[in-house]
Amino acid sequence: MAQSVKGTRDLFGNELEWFQRIEDTARRAFHRHGYSEIRTPILEEIEVFKRSVGESSDIVHKEMYDFKDKGDRHVAMRPENTAGVVRAVIQHQMLATSDPQLLYYIGPMFRYERMQAGRYRQFWQIGAESFQVSTPESEAESLVMLYDFLKELGLTQLTFSINSVGTPECRPAFHEAFRAFFKTREEQFCADCHRRIAENPLRVLDCKNERCQAALEGHPVLVDYLDEASRAHHERLKEILGALGIPFVENPRLVRGLDYYTRTAFEVLSSDLGAQSALLGGGRYDGLVKQLGGPQVAAFGWSIGLDRLAMLMQQLHGNAPRKPAPILIPLGASATLKAIQLARACWAQGLDLVLETRGANLKKALTTANRVGAPLALILGDGELEQGVVAVKDLAAGTQETWNLAEVPAKLSATRA
RNA sequence: GCGGAUGUAGCUCAGUUGGUUAGAGUACUGGAUUGUGAUUCCAGGUGUCGCCGGUUCAAAUCCGGUCAUCCGCCCCA
Fold it and tell me: What is the dihedral of CA A293, A297, A300, A303, to 10 degrees?
């Protein structure tokens, strides 16, 4: 039997209901804040990711889902969408004016990884990117949007971890201090950290090895090495988040797995997600647009894992709420013709109504109606047809009443409210 | 990429030191009831025992490979 490709899966039923509910909630939040959707290709030239995410990152290093196409182009399935959005924004000259560009996306991403619960080769992200706004206020705006979106979904226990990773100008001073610190106790660090200290010293900070974390005790803190503007930026963001009541903690060891971040970096982890605890992350990336061939502009963004968010919703709230439609059961040929016309009148008014079209007997039809959770069964047989009525059975209560055919749409409409 | 497990009915799972005809619950189908579901009673399919190969008189069981899933690490969403 044919099977879905490893690490990919079909979305349907209850899980998809959560996906849709989350997506709808996110879209409303984005639109409230003036963000516009952008849909970029799943395939990009691999260079787009190498030049943005960073050659040294694991994503490019070992997780890229890449291949050569028939034209011998080296392409990759996008592992994240910031690079693609930046490429599109440059390609379409969307930064020709100095106006802010506020964009969001929802779509599948691909990383070639070993499978685990909550970690897939095709997974979904919802994300926001804002260009040409550099202030801490703009970051707070984006974070408030994110926070209120999560709150609307009923997630109130989440705390943002934030840090500032500085700028390319002030980071060298930190690197120097940090390497000096590392040297005083380098024998206590793992092999990976020895590799990291050379390639990307910041990543030593979030090594998961307990011994390394212990060895980091008293390490130089990034925030102390920020230039004055970055420090003020960081302080102002914290001030605003505090004033808005958004729960956050400062985490001086928070660095992100992507190389392009500057100044603000943040993430949210959830212990309810098992080993794959990262739920969302983001930050400022003021250098990336230029790095990909565009103008020097400020940029800020985040993305959230839709699969993991749906998993969280399932754990916290159980199955997604859904409301099956009432079902209309005709009995006999003449009643069936009338039933189709009646259903059409209801559909024309935007009402949900499922038509039983199998010609099934009443027993079977009611069994099905009960199983799918229909709230009402409208029964239209020859007897009802003669009297111009339908029998309406409330499947939860077991009670039954009679409606005139003409008043069915209005009555259905009333029960839906 | 590294390490460790699991795979039997649609679903959740039993299945003894290898033994002849493979099980339970649930779900499903039909009937008790040809116009009344969900409750009850009766009857009944539930199947490539993941796949391929090997050992054996004999494999769901042991061995190898493979595919898929799960857990830990790495990393991330």
Answer: -20
Q: How far is the CA of A369 from the C1' of B21 (A)?
A: 40
> For A139-156, what is each residue's pLDDT tens digit?
999 999 999 999 999 998
Strand B: which nucleotides have any atom within 7 A of a protein Cβ? Answer: 1-3, 27-30, 33-38, 67-77
Judge if ipTM > 0.90. no
Domains of chain A: 13-156+257-267+276-317 (3.30.930.10), 327-416 (3.40.50.800)
* Closest nucleotide to A370 by C1' from CA: B37
What's the token pair of residue A71?
């034209």
Residue A403 and residue A411 in contact, taking contact as beta carbons nearer than 8 Å: yes
The long-range contacts involving A60-63, CB below 8 angstroms and separated by at least 24 positions, are A62/A112, A63/A111, A63/A112, A63/A113
Reported pTM: 0.91
Distance A251 CA to B11 C1' (A): 44
Give the tokens for residue A181: 């610190």
A129 CA from B66 C1′ (Å): 44
Confidence at residue A189, expressed as pLDDT on a 0 to 100 scale: 85
